[in-house]
From TrEMBL:
It comes from Sedimentibacter hydroxybenzoicus DSM 7310. This is Molybdopterin molybdenumtransferase. Catalyzes the insertion of molybdate into adenylated molybdopterin with the concomitant release of AMP. InterPro entries: MoaB/Mog-like_dom_sf, MoaB/Mog_dom, MoeA-like. Pathway: Cofactor biosynthesis; molybdopterin biosynthesis.
Length: 344
């Protein structure tokens, strides 16, 4: 820290707040500690009686908090994102579209483990809207070692640690199984739930085919939707392990690659995720457990945003859902503002 004349202070960093007092008008801080003095600031500083200022001495190998914050933002930023103005070593990352927020948790941990710098984010694999805050970056000290910031850059040099995948328009086919529904003995109440779920996204329901508990018929109904241009096929009914539950086998008989049948999520343990390859295009074929019909939120709510953003689901993604995969069935459901599905 050193004292210099205010007229020579351009480019220097203030070591203390500067307060402006105008009788009956204002008494407030006009320049905060850490502010980098600009040419246009000089008249204001002189007007509040500051002929001299205490500033940080620029040291080789050290960065001002705002310079460092800009670098933290660069490590985070990706397409469809924008920054807030830098202020006191802080920059917020803002979503510029609706979409699925993705986060590299491992590299985030490495950066935060360096100390004296932070990147605080929302959970990955969650829906964001345009204007939502995705993350906040902050440099703790006023001046930080440049070498530490270089380590941040090294961690983020391959690609940004965050991204937003835009949601796509999807054509959806629904295959409903069950002799009781096929023969009209009861009314189907599952299909409307699925329609409502997809109604939260840019989707088009191609139709609903109701078939008997016959594996060949279920397989044929799935393939018919695929041939008719479906981007997603959802199967309801017959997803248990009872002898007359044929939906999992019927999905397998289409030739779809089964990612998982079963998931460490409650409600939703009997979920089936698979992909059918049609001319190089991977079409999700999902077998939904019965809980999707009556529970407020299930595994389907956790996976659907990823399906709508063409974010392919792999086996380990399902396994990771175990931590946080227990819905507490709160009397007042606040999902997605709760811990369901957000363990990792």
């Amino acid at each position: 820290m050193k004292q210099i004349k205010t007229t020579d202070a351009v480019g220097h960093v203030l070591c203390h707040d500067i307060t402006q007092i105008i009788k009956d008008v204002t008494k407030d801080v006009v320049f905060k500690k850490g502010h980098v003095v600009r040419e246009e600031d000089i008249p204001v500083l002189l007007s509040v009686g500051k002929e001299n200022l205490f500033v940080w001495e620029k040291q080789e190998g050290m960065l001002h908090e705002n310079e460092a914050a800009e670098i933290l933002y660069e490590v985070c930023k990706n397409d469809y994102m924008k920054p807030s103005p830098v202020k006191e070593g802080k920059i917020e990352v803002i979503a510029d579209i609706d979409g699925l927020f993705k986060l590299d948790s491992e590299r985030l941990l490495k950066i935060n483990s360096l100390g004296e710098i932070i990147i605080a984010t929302r959970h990955g694999n969650t829906i964001v809207k345009k204007g939502d805050k995705l993350a906040g970056t902050r440099v703790i000290p006023l001046i930080i070692e440049e070498e530490k910031i270089k380590k941040v850059q090294e961690i983020g040099e391959s690609k940004p640690i965050m991204s937003i995948l835009p949601f796509k328009h999807k054509k959806v086919g629904i295959v409903t199984t069950g002799s009781e529904i096929f023969h009209g003995r009861i009314k189907d109440t599952f299909g409307p739930v699925i329609v409502d779920k997809f109604g939260e996204f840019d989707s088009e329901i191609l139709g609903q085919t109701i078939v008997n508990d016959n594996k060949n018929e279920i397989t044929a109904a799935i393939l018919e939707f695929v041939e008719n241009g479906a981007d997603i096929v959802v199967c309801t009914g017959g997803m248990s392990v009872d002898p007359d539950d044929h939906t999992p086998g019927a999905i397998k008989d289409t030739g779809a690659e089964i990612v998982t049948y079963g998931a460490p999520v409650l409600p939703g343990a009997m979920m089936l995720v698979s992909y059918y390859n049609r001319n190089g295009r991977e079409i999700p074929v999902l077998g939904l457990p019965g809980c999707v019909m009556y529970a407020k939120r299930t595994i389907f709510d956790l996976l659907l945003p990823r399906i709508m953003a063409d974010d392919k689901i792999i086996k380990s993604d399902i396994y990771r859902l175990g931590e946080g995969g227990l819905c507490l069935n709160c009397q007042v459901c606040t999902y997605p503002n709760c811990g369901f599905g957000k363990g990792r």
